[in-house]
Write a structure and sequence with these properties.
CATH topology of the largest domain: Growth Hormone, Chain: A
Distance between the termini: 34 Å
Largest sheet: 7 strands, mixed
CATH class of the largest domain: Mainly Alpha
Helix content: 55-70%
Strand content: 5-15%
């Protein structure tokens, strides 16, 4: 390879970065749809992705030492294989989810982790391998070639991929079409990487054509790959907020969003409970706010002859499908508002006689924000004097299990801070009716007084909701259970614990094994590597903080995940360029940048404490850019201290990835669920303080 041909390698590195980020974002979104939008899945994927990438970089060093000199031809073939694995990975997620697990079943933490780990292992190992391998190929001809240039080229590709996905592909094409388009530049770069004498050989054309055919075939099978195991897929759409599917089973239509059934055309009993429990005893009753809905509720609301019914649904595509498939009825006074329910309440002055929240249990941070002290206070401000807030949780049969008792107790204590009277109605769901005036439990009598006929409540209410069941529930509420807040989501901790308890497992063993492996790794690395390890930990921990804060304060992550990742990538390239220019005095530069990272996190903590949900979106994006800028700055400085050899480069790449993996898992699975967002940020600061001590007490080697 001629010296000026390093440009061909750089093109491959940039194209690989572009395609890999698009693949990563689509993989995250795909797993989100398969595992009910659980943000923990994001953390597990990022953790697995980074760990496997770090192992791949170490494998590159081992392979070149044992097998021999790296070559451009081998890099070209590896890149072609990487392209094929990307499309196969998405298909594998869709195909194997219902083969490995029972269709529609809940999946525990360990099976989820192992499933995500197994699916992405081939792609991520190879992806981690090709970055240092690209450097080794160039150094085969140019021994002193700077590793920082490869790092910068990779950052350029990563940023390009994030921008391409966030601002174009997510709006214009389906996931598998996005994979195809994102890999076309890589195929072109690989073609140019082949030596001129080999480019026109049949083998080169056949290989490139075969890979292009695999990508094209994968994209054309998009809808078929989503076919349900039972019933028929009658509608599919990728909206800005999630994947929307409509399944038909005989005469019943069910609307799925991110794999979760949210609407059914045949659930009359639930529709009656949602509407009549809160509304039957209200007088006057003119204005109702409905946050999300259920099939049949509009028909029940119509019986009250309301002046206005404001129905808030975040995704316009969801309401379009609801009315198209007659899942909801258009009634007099109905206004459909396409906005996040909490954001709508924060921006309106309208008062309501009832606010009905029809959302699932708070299994995600996006849903949890409708069950916090802050939301209940916001809802109370928009209720008339006799107004009622209604929401529900999963019910129980005869025995109230401890995790569910704690959830109901926390919600009761949280709502009690804003409402004088709270009534719980137990059944298949436990309905909370919150009001400042006394509430009557005799719902059928109130309906009879209004001359409202019902099919379920009038016939089964007295048999299901006995005084003994209501008394049993109220006697078991624990007044000492902590309240649920935005930044300290106690319900999420309970849901996380219940996730393990449901499958009779514990996270303790997993965390102990990881802690032991991390300790062994930390004992083997140098001080420079620890600086990058802690910086990677803080950077990905910061990214997780932003992702979860975004869910808490803005309520949707499916669209914004690409923008957040892109912003966290955007600062790496200019930071690495500056760090490559300013390498002396290296020790004090590392100390200064560590101090800057601590300062940025302190600003984040103070801003969230002082402003909370009043912070604009750009604040979180600027926070991410600042963190990644400093992270990128540190990499070439630490690499300069370590030396310029291949071993030093691969170990430095690996330290950054390993630290990022630990930061991802620690922040998302341990810190935020158990101690909250702000203390989690404090722990990340602690990691950087240790780094500062190591820099200041002894000379780096």
């Amino acid at each position: 390879m001629k010296k000026n041909d390093d440009r061909a390698i750089i093109r491959v590195v940039i194209a690989t970065g572009t395609s890999s980020v698009v693949t990563q974002l689509l993989t995250i979104r795909e797993f989100l749809t398969q595992f009910q939008g659980n943000e923990m899945v994001i953390a597990l994927i990022l953790f697995n992705w980074l760990i496997l990438g770090g192992l791949g970089t170490l494998l590159a060093r081992f392979t070149t030492r044992r097998v021999g000199r790296a070559s451009a031809g081998c890099l070209a073939w590896l890149s072609l294989v990487l392209s094929g694995l990307a499309i196969l990975q998405i298909h594998a997620i869709r195909l194997l989810r219902d083969i490995v697990f029972i269709h529609g079943s809940s999946v525990g933490f360990y099976p989820t982790w192992l499933f995500t780990f197994g699916i992405i292992t081939p792609y991520c190992l190879l992806l981690g391998f090709v970055l240092p391998y690209s450097l080794f190929v160039i150094r085969g001809e140019q021994a002193g070639y700077p590793a920082a240039r490869i790092y910068i080229a990779d950052n350029i590709g990563d940023l390009s991929g994030g921008a391409l996905f966030s601002f174009a592909l997510v709006y214009l094409v389906s996931p598998l079409q996005a994979i195809l388009l994102a890999h076309l530049p890589l195929l072109a770069a690989v073609y140019l990487l082949f030596p001129a004498s080999n480019r026109h050989r049949p083998s080169a054309y056949i290989s490139l054509g075969l890979l292009a055919g695999v990508l094209l075939a994968g994209a054309t099978l998009e809808k078929r790959s989503l076919a349900p195991t039972s019933g028929q897929l009658v509608h599919y759409r990728e909206s800005r907020y999630g994947r929307i599917e409509v399944h038909r089973d005989q005469e019943q239509y069910t609307l799925f969003e991110d794999g979760v059934p949210i609407f059914s055309s045949q659930n009359q009993s639930l529709a009656e409970e949602i509407v009549h429990y809160p509304l039957a005893g209200l007088d006057p009753l003119n204005h109702v706010l409905l946050i999300s809905a259920q099939g049949g509720v509009m028909g029940e609301l119509k019986k009250y002859q309301l002046k206005t019914v404001d129905y808030v649904e975040l995704d316009p595509a969801v309401t379009d499908i609801q009315f198209r498939f007659d899942l909801l009825e258009k009634i007099p006074g109905l206004t459909v508002i396409h906005q996040d329910g909490r954001a709508y309440l924060a921006g309106t002055n309208k008062m309501y006689d009832a606010i009905i929240v029809n959302l699932p249990e708070p299994g995600t941070f996006q849903i949890n924000r409708f069950y916090t002290r802050q939301f209940f206070g916001l809802a109370r401000k928009h209720l008339t004097d006799g107004g009622v807030l209604s929401f529900s949780m999963q019910g129980y049969d005869n025995f109230l299990a401890e995790p569910q008792r704690q959830k109901l107790s926390s919600l009761y204590n949280t709502a009690q801070a804003h409402f004088k009277h709270i009534m719980l109605l137990p059944g298949q769901k436990v309905f909370f009716l919150c009001r400042d005036r006394p509430l009557s439990v005799d719902i059928p009598a109130a309906l009879a007084q209004r001359n409202i006929d019902t099919a379920y409540i009038s016939g089964f209410f007295y048999g299901n909701l006995t005084a003994e069941r209501i008394q049993y529930l109220n006697q078991r509420l624990d007044p000492s259970t902590p309240v649920n807040t935005d930044t300290a989501p106690y319900l999420m901790r309970l849901m996380f614990s219940q996730w393990f308890a449901k499958f009779k497992t514990s996270p303790l063993g997993f965390f102990l094994v990881l802690a032991l492996l991390a300790a062994v790794y930390l004992l083997q690395i140098s001080r420079e590597e620890y600086v990058l390890f802690s910086t990677g930990c803080l950077t990905m921990g910061g990214e997780i903080l932003v992702i979860f804060a975004f869910q808490i304060f803005f309520g949707y992550i499916y669209l914004q995940i690409g923008i957040i990742v892109t912003v966290f990538l955007a600062g790496l390239m200019p930071g690495a360029w500056l760090g490559n220019k300013l390498q002396q005095p290296a020790k004090w530069i590392l100390a200064l940048t560590d101090g800057l990272l601590i300062a940025v996190l302190l600003v984040f903590i103070l801003a969230v404490v002082g402003c909370g949900d009043r912070l604009p979106v750009w604040f979180y994006l600027m926070f991410g850019f600042a963190v990644s800028l400093v992270c990128g700055f540190q990499f070439p400085v630490a690499l300069f201290l370590k030396g310029s050899g291949n071993a030093a480069a691969s170990r430095t790449f690996s330290a950054d990835l390993m630290g990022a993996a630990c930061g991802t898992l620690l922040t998302s699975v341990v810190l935020i669920p158990y101690i909250g967002i702000l203390p989690a940020a404090g722990v990340l600061i602690g990691f950087k303080l240790v780094s500062l001590v190591l820099i200041g007490t002894r000379a780096l080697k």
